[in-house]
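#dry-run=false #mode=assembly
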Amino acid sequence: MPDTSDILSLESLKVHFPIQGGLFDRVLGRSAGAVRAADGVDLNIGRGEIVALVGESGSGKTTVGRVITKLAQPTGGRLLFEGRDMTSAKGFSALRPYRRRVQMIFQDAYQALNPRHTVFDSVAEPLRSLRLVKNHAQLTERVSEALSAAGLNPPGDFFARFPHELSGGQRQRVVIAGALAVKPELIVADEPVSMLDVSIRAQILQVLVDLRAKHNMALLFITHDLPLAWLIADRIAVLYLGRLVEIGSADDITFNPRHPYTVALRNATPQIRSDASRFELPALQGEVPSAARVPKGCRFHPRCPLAFDRCKEEEPPAIEVGPQHMSACWLPTSGAKAGLSTPNLKSADHGSV
Amino acid sequence: MSESIVRYSSRSRARAIKSFLSNLLGHAGAQLGLLCLVFFLVLSAVPNILVGPLETVATATGDFLVPPSSQHLLGTDEVGRDVLNLVVHGARISLTIALLATVISLVVGTTVGITAGYYGGRVDVWLMRLTDFFFVMPSFVLALVITPVVLEVMGRGREILGFRPSLFVILVVIGITSWAFVARIVRSQTLSLKERTFIDRARVVGSSNLSIMVRHILPNLVPQIAANGALVVAGAIYVETSLSFLGLGDPLQPSWGTLLSLAQRAGAASTGAWWYLGAPGLCALAVSLSFVLVGNALDDTFNPRQRVIP
Ligand SMILES: Nc1ncnc2c1ncn2[C@@H]1O[C@H](COP(=O)(O)OP(=O)(O)O)[C@@H](O)[C@H]1O
Ligand code: SF4
Ligand SMILES: [Mg+2]
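#status=ok
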């Protein structure tokens, strides 16, 4: 029974991209396998809640965001919006009501704006196509309002500009203005500041935080940066190879992580690691494996310093490890302390992820 | 406030157009080509003012096959008509046919190319099969097959859109046989454009497929369409000339190709009437070359800085 207080829920969401096999495979009718970009993601977002989706590059964050914004079709699981199943909704007219309520902000704002459209056209596009205005005066008013809210003042000065005439931060503000012009209830922000100058990141984040404060807008904030996630989010979900390994309040995930992967992520971040930590771990070894070859058992086991036999065979389910805090690891139930007391772990030194 | 949008926007566009023109005119080839085209466009715009009405056998004033002289700058033909008069009037027919055929070809080619590239899958496969079919279809064979049918159906004397039937056939045949080239180029550009993030954003903000194709993809294709459009015109002039030379033209609305054909039949080559063959031939050559020059310059201007031109 879906919780109707959640605006959005994902239920064991899967996105598998088939791998185009060689001629040999096709002649034999053999499947070349699949890239498991999302591989059973369960996630709820409450009204007006800011949830951060954290993970290394290639962990499937963008794919999850694209499913929520109906840019990618899941191959399994369900996407529920206010309890209604949106998984198979298709076609722009059928999706129009959904689009009014769910918007997206992209990582690369320069790519996200049509180089031949003015700022006014770009921000007006959602209002026009979703039929939210009746006449040109209303359109101009909503566009101005949105540009102001996104921090482009005075808005009239930006109407006739083209993307190449704007700075990176201004472009991202235009994209944000377009998203918030329709007054959505959920915005998916895919690494919205990762390509921006450090000096303007805080301002852009402030715009997003203000939206929640003023309009109770929910936000799925996608990032690879744990401190950033802690700064902005109420809850943090940690994604590893297409699956959530830990989810909990921002403070719990940052200062009291339970999953070895989260601990490793945290330890790789100098700002946080000085804090009293629950347990020490050596830095992560090796690369993230390809989503085309997800390891059997716990998908983190080849890199996990605490892995034991069971990890190689059985995939751990998400287990409640505290209030509102889930972790998908065998350790909390089966001998975490034993693993932690292994002396060579303590002596090992740390590098970076 | 909406007035100020228009004002700002037109100023910004004016600036962009100005910088584009100055880039284009930086090419020596473009200058030469444009100069030549302007010259021929003037000829075809006001032929009556320049050389009087089209001369016919009845109104011919000169002797037969007279070499160029002060009275007949380009000599006369085998019935005593002034060749300059014929060539200037021929410019109008040749250019009109070529330009209209290009419009047909660009409209059909762009529509097919965008649709195939954007939708992909089965739509793409079938549209591209169709395109390949038209791509290899020889215009001569098509013209030879269609002409008698149209003449039979329409009757020789009737005019279609101001064209006598055989010219109309040439126009349609060129259009039909040249759009495939445009469709292929547009499709491949569309394939790469549709992967751009701004198309994703357009979807998220609720734009329909049609609006994405028309408002997002088409404007970004303008450089390719313009550059290749110029090449299509050059090809159309060439095909028109050849079809008319083969006798598919209309003697009452003579194009350059028709003149070449008449000259050939009058034995201009063997009797040494070089002016009769040379005048229309050089004109056709000059105009197609000009379009090629302009097309290449457009390509050069658009390509390296595609992203900065609004
Ligand atoms: N359209 C696609 N086709 C095939 N594989 C894809 C596609 N999109 C993403 N992937 C793969 O899915 C995995 C997750 O990608 P992505 O969601 O972009 O991760 P992230 O945003 O966390 O970096 C990667 O291995 C990526 O190569
Ligand atoms: S289940 Fe095993 S391998 Fe996976 S994170 Fe826990 S200890 Fe490591
Ligand atoms: Mg990504």
